Automatic annotation (TrEMBL):
Assigned keywords, A-Z: Signal
Region (Disordered): 182-205
Full protein name: Lipoprotein
Source organism of the structure: Oceanitalea stevensii
Record's signal peptide: 1-31
Length: 293
């Protein structure tokens, strides 16, 4: 079985700590004047911001999910998918659409929605990780946020919705909701045939080779070549550095010549995820100028 689910919460936390989370971070424990440790600080959830307002949220639904609604019936279905109780608040469909962000957190490590971001044809959440993400467990628990988004901030259609700017993690294509039509016109709706949770066809990531830079927010392909002079497997140089498996990862079991999919975790990040047909592994950046570890 591919080793994916438990690690994704920690990896997502690394992404959001560098830019946004998605995905799992701990509250910060303080120290009072007597020197005793205080309780973790819980994040304060805001209820509105520029171009959006919160309709409901809770530790429910599934993680790594998104969805869009443009009618009362669609919102009822979205509300149920998010696992929220009761009836959803009213939405002004002339001026708004509804969006579900199925975020994820590690146990005891809350995540907070701070806003909604629109960049070109992408709408994504701005999720904040209070505390220290590295201290959180690797489990993946859901935190649903359902928001009303003003139509006048939506991208032109078609567009897609994700938790973050980066591509969905391997095995979680449902995170990306693709909307095939524009919804910025007052009262416009989307049919079931015009919204789906994966691209309509395979989209092969670009191929990178040694010496190339890495994009901050999209996956790439890379052919692994074993270096017989190194006792520890290394990749690259990519993005100006060599990369090795992180401490605690399973033994490297990737044959020379295997094509990997690399998932960068942000511009200049010191970690990235490498997917092979056998497993997923977290890689760490070696310090500048370092060769074999």
């Amino acid at each position: 079985m591919r080793q994916t689910r438990r690690r994704r919460a920690a990896r997502g936390a690394a992404v959001l700590a560098g830019g946004l989370l998605l995905l799992g971070a701990c509250g910060t424990a303080g120290t009072d004047p007597a020197g005793t440790e205080s309780a973790p600080v819980e994040p304060v959830q805001v209820t509105a911001g520029e171009g959006w307002r919160l309709l409901g949220e809770g530790l429910t639904g599934e993680p790594y999910r998104t969805g869009v609604a443009t009618t009362d019936d669609q919102l009822d279905a979205l509300w149920r998918s998010a696992g929220l109780d009761g009836k959803p608040p009213a939405v002004d469909w002339e001026r708004e659409v509804a969006v579900w962000f199925g975020a994820v957190y590690g146990t005891g490590c809350p995540v907070r929605l701070d806003g909604v971001v629109v960049v070109e044809d992408l709408l994504h959440a701005e999720l904040t990780l209070p505390g220290e993400p590295a201290a959180c467990p690797d489990d993946a628990n859901p935190h649903a946020f359902v928001v009303a988004v003003a139509r006048d901030v939506l991208p032109d259609g078609p567009f897609h919705v994700q938790l973050e700017a980066r591509d969905p993690y391997p095995g979680e294509p449902e995170e990306r909701t693709v909307v095939d039509v524009g919804l910025d016109s007052p009262g416009s709706t989307v049919s079931d045939d015009e919204v789906h949770t994966a691209p309509p066809g395979p989209q092969e990531p670009p191929l990178v080779v040694d010496g190339d830079d890495l994009p901050a927010d999209r996956s790439v392909r890379y052919v692994y070549r074993a270096d017989p002079s190194c006792d520890t497997p290394v990749l690259g140089p990519l993005d100006g550095s060599l990369w090795r498996p992180a401490d605690g990862e399973a033994p490297w079991d990737v044959a020379d010549g295997t094509e990997l999919t690399l998932h960068p975790l942000g511009d200049g990040a010191r970690e990235m995820l490498a997917s092979s047909p056998q497993t997923d592994q977290l890689l760490v950046r070696l310090d500048d100028g370092h060769g074999c570890p």
